[in-house]
Amino acid sequence: MTKLQVAIDLLTTEAALELAHKVAPYVDIIELGTPLIKSEGLKVVTAMKAAFPGKLIFADMKIADTGFLEAEIAFLAGADLVTVMGAVDNATIKGAVEAAKKHGKKVVVDTIGVKNRVERAQEVTAFGVAFVELHAGLDEQTLAGYSVQTLISEGKLAKVPFSVAGGVNIDTIKDVVAAGADVAVAGGAIYGAEDPAAAAKALKEAINSVTVA
Ligand SMILES: O=C(CO)[C@H](O)[C@H](O)COP(=O)(O)O
C-alpha cells in the first residue's frame, strides 16, 4: 500500500505541530520541510517525534556533504528518515547510509536537479537507501510545461522503491499509486488547503481506492 507523506513547508514549530495534529490520522509519514528545519533547527524534529512517536518522522535535510555527520545529527534528534541529494558524490550517500545502519534508521535520496533520474535512482538504490524521491522542487514546479506526470512515468521505468514529490494533489495521486510508488508526498495540497484535515483524508481515501496489479 502506498504511504501518504505530508510535507510541512511551514516556518515555525508551532504551526507545524498544529498542522500535524490536524492531519496525523490520515498520514503515515510526517515530513519536516527543509525551510522549516533551516528556520527552527533540529528541535522541530525532536518536538514532532515527541508529539507523534507512532509516526515516521522524515527530516528533509537535503544533505549535500558530510553524509554520515549530518544524517547522524538528524537521527539523534529523532528522525526516522533523512534525505540526501542524489546529485552529490556517492561517498556522501554511502556515509548517510552508514549512519542510518548505526541508528536503525533510513535514508531517502532526493533527485532534485538530477538530469537522468531513472538511471541515478537505480544506481543509488544499490547503496542501501530506503527509497528514491522522484522530485521536482517548488521552484521547478513554477516553470512552464512542468507536469508531475513526468515523475510518475520515471517511477514506472526505474523499477526501484520510489516516492513522487512535486505538486501531487487529489487529481494526480491515483496515478502516483497506480505507478507503484511506495510513498506519495503532498505538501501544498494539504497545508495550503482551506481544510487540511479534509484534504489529507481525501488523499488517503484516493490511495485506498486504487488497487495496484
Ligand atoms: O521538498 C519540497 C520542496 O523542496 C516539498 O516539500 C515537496 O516538493 C512536496 O511539496 P509539494 O507537494 O507542495 O510540491
CATH topology: TIM Barrel
Computed structural class: alpha/beta
- Report the biggest beta sheet as strand number plus sense, adding barrel if it closes: 8 strands, parallel, barrel
Could you give the order of the helices and strands? Answer: EHEHHEHEHEHEHHEHEHH
What bound compounds does this protein have? ribulose-5-phosphate
Assembly type of the chains comes to: single chain
C-alpha Rg (nearest Å) = 16 Å
State the separation between the terminal residues, measured CA to CA: 11 Å
Walk across the major sheet and give the strand order: 1-2-3-4-5-6-7-8
What share of residues is helical? 40-55%
How many helical stretches? 11
| Count of beta strands | 8
Q: Quick one: overall form?
A: globular
Characterize the structure shown:
This protein has a single domain, classed as Aldolase class I (TIM Barrel, Alpha-Beta Barrel), CATH 3.20.20.70. The N and C termini lie close together (11 Å). Strand 7 (162-165), helix 9 and strand 8 (183-186) form a beta-alpha-beta unit. Helix content is 47%, strand content 19%. It has eleven helices and eight strands. The protein has helices at 13-23, 34-40, 43-51, 67-77, 90-103, 117-125, 138-141, 148-158, 173-178, 188-191, 196-209, and strands at residues 3-8, 29-32, 56-63, 81-85, 106-110, 131-135, 162-165, 183-186. The chain is an alpha/beta fold and 213 residues long. An eight-stranded parallel barrel has the order 1-2-3-4-5-6-7-8, surrounded by eight helices. The structure holds ribulose-5-phosphate. Ribulose-5-phosphate is lined by residues 7, 9, 33-34, 60, 137-138, 165-168, 185-189.
